[in-house]
Amino acid sequence: MLKQAILALALSGTMLAGPCMAHAKLQSSFPAKDAHLTAAPKALTLTFNEAAQLAVLKLTGGGKEIPIAVDKNAKASPSFTFPLPALAPGSYTVQWTAVAADDGHVTKGSFAFSISA
Amino acid sequence: MELTGWDAAAVCAKAITYAATLGAAGAIFFLSYCGSLLDELLRSRIRSLAGSLLIAAALASGAKVLLSGASMSGELAGMFDSGFLGMILGAGEGRATGMRMAGLALAALAIPSNPRFRALALLGAAAAAISFAGVGHIRGLLPNAAPLLLLCLHLLCAAFWLGALGPLLIAARDGSDREAALLASRFGKLALGVVALLLAAGAGVLWTLIGDAAQFWSSDYGRMMAMKLLMVAALLSIAAVNKLYLTPKLLSGNAKAVIYFRRSVKTEMVLGALILLITAAFTTVAGPPQ
User: Which end of chain B is more exposed for a tag (fewer CB within 10 A), N or C?
Assistant: First the structure.
């Protein structure tokens, strides 16, 4: 019975195996962090160091949130691009939350950019 | 590193899940290796403790998932958002939680007094203890399975050590001094090898996660790990006093020894809880320097 228990425990360890990734870090973005743009960007792009699922994306400017639709059911990807409405000159903040696809680690971050008149 | 209230709540739920799961598993291990030394009263009370911890572990596991949703979204609604919960469960937490729940259900077979199910209960307890390796930073090192196996060994040893504290306190409080002495002695003999394995496995996992020693002190992960190691050193010191000083006094029939032993075990429990809280923190809000 002990041998069976050890074998069963070893087999149950295989449940722990699976595809692997480490936690996601924002590698680059457009607009870039602290960028001063002369024209409003047409799209917002986030690029992570590996595939992740984007859980939360908030763009705020002038005290208001600009709606951006995030598909929480989308497959994990290292890069996400969202079309933007015409943005008025001013300062903007992007807040994001991502989940690494396998280790489940949640990372959050934010960055700012501005558009000059 | 900024923490919201929801982040802190998620960390606390994780710490409680660790404590309850490892505590339940360790209590079931204790029933197995100390069973012959336990009278029916102590055996019954330790089974009750194990049962309560099994229920707490299951509830805390569920709360952890819900609070992770709130932490991700930054608001209460995130706890009930199917999109967030789907992401959390699909990203490894589902595997870990599923294995833990299955393990806890099997481990519950230890609660009735029928010895026929002892092997299954032990298997369930072990599975629940190692379920925490089903998600987390260590998975980033796959397909190298050695760190994962080391983490599983570390978790089993942690369950053995921390999970024995509740039963030892019950024995010191409700059993005869002689019973407490024999149980402390039996545990102490086994703990020597288990703690050595715990430390070696933990060092192995840390070595593989921290690629550059210079980054250890410059990262939040490294600084929190350092706090954990400090607590572990304090715990080891108290355990050494128990083994080398108090247990011989207990065995010799010293009347005051059991009082000091109870206090010592309670102190170990507090330190153990702090270790699990720090571990929950650095495995949630920080990551190993890459």
Answer: N
